[in-house]
UniProtKB/TrEMBL annotation:
Oxidoreductase in keyword set: yes
A single GO BP: ketone metabolic process
EC number: 1.1.1.358
UniProt GO molecular function: 2-dehydropantolactone reductase (A-specific) activity; oxidoreductase activity, acting on NAD(P)H as acceptor
InterPro entries with a match to the protein in the record: AKR, AKR3C2/3, Aldo/ket_reductase_CS, NADP_OxRdtase_dom
Keywords: Oxidoreductase
Catalytic activity: (R)-pantolactone + NADP(+) = 2-dehydropantolactone + NADPH + H(+); isatin + NADPH + H(+) = 3-hydroxyindolin-2-one + NADP(+)
Residue ranges annotated for the NADP-dependent oxidoreductase domain, each copy included: 30-285
Highest rank taxon of the organism: Eukaryota
Entry protein name: 2-dehydropantolactone reductase
Amino acid sequence: MSLSQDFFQLPNGSKIPAIAYGMGTKWEKRGEPGLNDNLIKNLQFAIDVGFRHFDGAEVYNTNKEIGLLLNKSSLSRDQLFITDKFFSGGPDLGERSDYKDPYSALKGDLRDLQLDYVDLYLLHSPHIKKETHGYSLIEAWQCLERLKDEGLAKNIGVSNFSVDDLRQISENNPTHRPAVNQIEYSASVQDQPPGIFEYCKQQGILIEGYGVLSPLSETTTKHNLNSLLTKLSKKYGKTEAQILLRWTIQQGVLPVVTSNDAADIKSFLEIFDFQLTMEDLDAISGKGSDRGLKGMLHNVVSKVKS
């Protein structure tokens, strides 16, 4: 039996499931041939327990697994929310998409996904320049606008964009503005790049956060979260991971999570039956210390992963 799942609302009024199962980090394939049977198994379990939002990307090389599973699923297409991302590359990285531009990239990804459209398509990073890609960041965004206009992407957005990056788009009279900015976000990284949280809030851009559970794997003496999370876990009868996920959602941020552990996958959805008090929300926010550009974000820049 599926667990209930809340939704966020995008600017066009469409609903987006409030938590996503991510296909990057743990599952990303680095040139390995064939399908990942373990990934397919975990995806099926995620669907069985109630996940409906799946976050993929060209660079993860897992779209064929997603497509195979979705093709076999008894769920109708409108019950699922599928995100894909264009592999923009990084600032010092020659490697980037095999396709000439985002428009052709999504058309190729749709073949692997065995879908007619994706629900959300993102530029995976802002590092797009005329001299390296043959087109500018604005022209890349115009490719996404074309995909939206043609119905191949129901919503469009960005990932790892700063305030200045977003302003580049907004200052060039876009037909469609970004609906989403997927960035690193956690109790210890609450506003990276600087100013992005408030700017997205003001502009009506939904923040999706990856790395939301990273405080659990950090040396938390620096961040002073251990004792607080232990205390709140006992208070609410929830795991520390569930406390952090609930904190994320109550910040208005959509968490992207992943795991190959069945118990973890199921527990990720068991966060919609309680709320943290304002006092506890503020306590978590206060204990977290934003320490600037993290190692995870360096990886995003160098290999565009989430």
